Amino acid sequence: MFRRLNQALPSLLAGILLYGIFIQLAGVWFVEDKLRYSSGLWIGIVTAMAMAYHIALIIAETIDAPDPEKARTRIIAKGILRYVSVVAVFAVTMYFDLGNLVTLFIGVMGLKISAYLQPTLHKMMRKVTGKGGMSTDKTNTIEREVKM
Question: What's the whole-model pTM score?
Answer without folding.
Answer: 0.82
